[in-house]
Design brief:
alpha+beta, seven-stranded antiparallel beta sheet, elongated
């Protein structure tokens, strides 16, 4: 029995030696219990001198220790660049409509959230790393908690500003954590929605265009004239013109009186512009009527000095005007808003008879009075095959097989131009239009009867009533009436006109469809704040890495708790061994177990490494114990 007891005692000694040996083989880690006593912070900390002849064999892969933080910061920087690119792409564009009700604000909000998370990954580890440098001097242990809270929350960061103002990197990290709250709102402010006009590419806009008759527009011009006498052959209620036209103000009076006529007797009063248009006009119409309207000083009308009164008998003053209807080329700037077509005339070019087109054509005169010549206008400048040509180089336009050239006189000089630049009205159509206007449209008179009040009767020519205008005819009303007629004829010609090369083709001018919609406006100034925060995070990360490179004695532990367990308040047993880095601490912790005991002797106890040798030894010990019990 004594032998057995001695053997057991010897085995216990052997077991202790084996466990100690296994423990010491793992870089001599001190797994003993921590000293429960805490030294006075005012007492100097005992420093171990570097062991003589010892070499720190640990590899200081500083950048490898910070690789996750570097990558997270690169992701944040990349997403910031993506944010700039996305908002720049959609700047001034229609607000995108994506599936699942996802809009641009949602996408930017998601990106900004990821940016903040990636940035705070680096900031949290930087703050955690600075606490190890902070405790290189004697500090209150509560600062350890303050640094830990600062790496986790905004409130902790606020507290760190007052607890450790001397930790420059820690304070900067805390400020970045606090200001990072504004990343989301600031990025949202960079997106502004404004109303804008966008081109609707799925729809097409077009207006009819006529190159050849009946494709030319007509233009009306009214000329006021002055004569030597204010009135001619005036009796009590009768007014007449030198061409035989007359009106009176008696019951059954004949007014207004409209007649197609070229007033050679008033030619001396024509302006150069009106004279040029009247000579190439399709027809000239004289209107004589009675009016009670007050005429302006610039209007040249007949005025009877004794007829300034009105009665049921229809007394009033006369008004006369000459209108010349001629062919011209109009350039429009057209738009349709809310279904209403609005056209603004950019320029007007008369289309006179092209006498040089058929050589000696003036001798061929149509019996109706219209020469057998085309009314022709030249478009200047002109677009041919995608290239602009002016009158000086139109003759050099590409001479393709289907393109023809026509001579034309412009300001007394003959030119040869492609038909693409010409707009024509054929003499046949012009002759028919002249006959219609002179025989039916602008020829006749109306009758005033006292029994009808202020109304007049024009019989089948009811459209002449607009020239009477309820006895308020004036130069403006007559001009408006003829302009409306010219516009109506022009619109008809535009819809029924044809190409100058093929009369069966109706040409159109293409435009764009624009609509008022909501667009995105990129206000890049709001992104300066998150950009500056990322730049500041990069700066303090670089500063922290450089500090780790300079101070090689301080391992990169960051937010790990293992240094507190392995290098707590107990003194190191073997100062000859270097301090373990974070990866070595993680490896050692993975191969060790411990139990935390509460009570008077609280702390981690029973820490031992886990390895195959220890497990085999434990099984061997169990076998030995069994043999001893049997004996």
């Amino acid at each position: 029995m004594a032998r057995g007891k001695n053997s057991k005692s010897e085995y216990e000694t052997l077991e202790q030696d084996i466990i100690t040996a296994e423990t010491n083989t793992y870089q001599d880690i001190n797994l003993g219990l921590c000293d429960s006593g805490i030294k006075d912070p005012r007492e100097p900390i005992e420093q171990y001198p570097p062991p003589v002849g010892s070499v720190d064999t640990r590899c200081h892969h500083v950048f490898r220790s910070w690789h996750w933080e570097i990558w997270s910061l690169l992701v944040a920087l990349g997403l910031m660049v993506v944010t700039y690119c996305i908002l720049s792409w959609y700047n001034g564009q229609r607000v995108p409509e994506w599936s699942f009700s996802i809009n641009l604000n949602t996408l930017i909000a998601l990106i900004s959230t990821i940016i903040r998370a990636m940035m705070l990954v680096s900031v949290a580890e930087i703050i955690s790393q600075t606490k190890w440098d902070w405790f290189s001097r004697s500090r209150p242990l509560s600062h350890m908690k303050n640094f830990d809270e600062a790496s986790r929350s905004i409130s902790g960061s606020l507290g760190l500003l007052f607890v450790a103002p001397g930790s420059i990197l820690g304070v900067l990290g805390a400020l970045i954590t606090i200001l990072s709250v504004g990343i989301g709102p600031f990025t949202q402010q960079a997106i502004k929605t404004i109303p804008c006009i966008q081109t609707h590419r799925e729809l097409e806009a077009s207006l009819p265009l006529a190159h050849f008759a009946p494709g030319m527009g007509t233009y009306s011009q009214i000329a006021g004239t002055t004569w030597d006498s204010r009135y001619y052959q005036v009796t009590a209620d009768n007014y007449s013109l030198p061409n035989g036209m007359w009106v009176n103000t008696d019951d059954n009076a004949q007014y207004p009186n409209i007649r197609p006529d070229y007033p050679h007797w008033a030619k001396s009063a024509f302006t150069p512009e009106f004279l040029a248009g009247s000579l190439s006009s399709i027809t000239n119409v004289t209107v004589l009527s009675v009016t009670m309207a007050t005429q302006s000083k610039d209007e040249r009308v007949f005025t009877h000095p004794d007829s300034e009164r009105d009665s049921q008998g229809g007394q009033g003053g006369p008004v006369a005007a000459l209108c010349s209807v001629y062919v011209c080329l109009k350039n429009y700037n057209a738009s349709i808003e809310k279904g209403i077509l609005s056209e603004n005339i950019v320029s007007t070019e008369p289309a006179p008879l092209n006498w040089v087109e058929y050589g000696r054509a003036p001798r061929f005169i149509d019996p109706s009075g219209v020469p057998r010549l085309n009314y022709t206008a030249l478009q200047r400048p002109c677009l041919v095959d995608g290239q602009w040509f002016d009158i000086s180089n139109m003759s050099s336009a590409p001479k393709t097989p289907n393109r023809t050239f026509t001579p034309i006189t412009v300001e007394g000089t003959n030119y040869t131009v492609p038909n693409d630049c010409l707009y024509k009205m054929g003499w046949i159509y012009a002759s028919a239009l002249q006959i219609f206007m002179e025989q039916d449209l602008f020829n006749g008179n109306c009758t005033f009867r006292e029994s009808l009040g202020q109304s007049i009767s024009c019989n089948s020519r009811w459209w002449l009533v607009s020239l009477y205008n309820d006895k308020k005819a004036s130069f403006e009303t007559l001009s408006t009436a003829f302009d409306q007629f010219a516009t109506a004829v022009t619109n008809k010609l535009r819809t029924s006109g044809s190409s100058i090369y093929d009369w069966n083709i109706h040409e159109t001018v293409q435009g764009t469809v624009e609509e008022v919609t909501m667009c995105t406006q990129f206000q890049w100034q709001w992104l300066l704040m998150p950009t500056i925060l990322i730049a500041a995070t990069t700066a303090i990360l670089v500063a922290t890495i450089l500090q780790n490179v300079r101070n090689r004695e301080q391992p990169v532990w960051k937010s790990s708790l293992l240094p507190l367990l392995y290098y707590g308040f107990a003194q190191r047993i073997d100062p000859s061994k270097p301090v373990m880095g974070l990866s070595e601490l993680n490896q050692a912790a993975a191969n060790a177990k411990a139990v935390f005991r509460n009570g008077a002797e609280a702390g981690f106890v029973g820490a031992y490494p886990i390895s195959e040798n220890v497990e085999r030894q434990k099984r061997r010990n169990m076998d030995v114990d069994s043999l001893l019990e049997e004996k």
